Amino acid sequence: MIVQDEFQKLLEKITNTDVYKRVSTDIFHEQEKKLIQHHKQLPDWVGKEDHGPCYFVRYTSPSTSEEVTIKTKTYKLQDQIELNTLHKLKTYQWLLAEAYEAFEDFIEIVYADCGVRGSNLWVRPDDWRHEGSTNLSDYLKPRKKGSSTPYIQLSALRERSTHFREHEAKEGNNYRVVFVLIEKFRHLIVHQGGYCFGFNTLMKKIQRELVGVSFEGVRSYVKSYLIPHREALLVDLLEFPVEDGPGAVIGAYHDTMQSLFNTLIEYAVLVKESIELDNAELQLTH
């Protein structure tokens, strides 16, 4: 059974991603301090309000060899700070996408292994033509009308594992809802630059994956991760300050990325536990 090894691979990948995130946080924080300090040190004769760099993009026509140069706007101090923050956010977004894809790889492989071992957790997919196969590759990427990885695998676990059902969606800690949110955000990050151009459309997609789940509070929960930017909604994964209690006094922050990484790891732990329990039962019957 390969679930333990695959979980360790997942854990290593997400741990590394978390380290990248922490280092990135420090880099962008220091960069903002440098931008502000540099601006303060500009001589008085420089028009500080309008001062800043601009950038050039050059390209050449393949047919005429004519070179075209495009000059960007001048990035004033506030523009530079915004650019630095957006760069930080873009880094966070892609790190979340990497962590999500590590989970997707994990569940695809360990679920396929359930099929190889004849586990009760494995559900025969549509148009499957590998009866009796012991090749892992034959059990990868299962297809079912209206669904694919990772929802096929999660649905099977939900249907066939009591342990998974009991612990997937507890009050105050609903892994199912947060995971769907991460998956939909990953799609926005990869295909739409991290922007949501239709909130209601996004909510319909989320609701489609949460059949049987109370939707009370989900809409406001999703909205809390989105901020208006450039006539759209931007997936916001940045830290935000603690507002109450001792944390507020010392200037503490909520770490959004850490919370989402933990969701992926703990959801994978639940998958691993469910498979291990099923395997123990399978051994008793043989």
Radius of gyration: 24 Å
Compute the number of structural domains: 1
Oligomeric description of these chains: single chain
Biggest β-sheet, characterized? Answer: 3 strands, antiparallel
Number of helices: 9
Largest beta sheet: strand ordering: 5-7-6
Helix-strand category: mainly alpha
Strand residue content: 5-15%
Shape: elongated
Strand segment tally: 9
Task: Spell the H/E element sequence.
Answer: HEEHHHEEHEHHEEEHEH
Task: Give start-end ranges of low-pLDDT stretches.
Answer: none
Short characterization:
The protein has helices spanning 3-40, 77-117, 151-160, 162-168, 175-192, 199-208, 218-223, 245-249, 256-284, and strands at 56-60, 67-71, 169-170, 173-174, 195-196, 226-229, 232-235, 240-241, 253-254. By secondary structure, the protein is mainly alpha-helical. It has one domain (3-284).
Layout: helices, strands, pairs:
Elements: H1 3-40, E1 56-60, E2 67-71, H2 77-117, H3 151-160, H4 162-168, E3 169-170, E4 173-174, H5 175-192, E5 195-196, H6 199-208, H7 218-223, E6 226-229, E7 232-235, E8 240-241, H8 245-249, E9 253-254, H9 256-284
Antiparallel strand pairs: 1-2, 3-4, 5-7, 6-7, 8-9
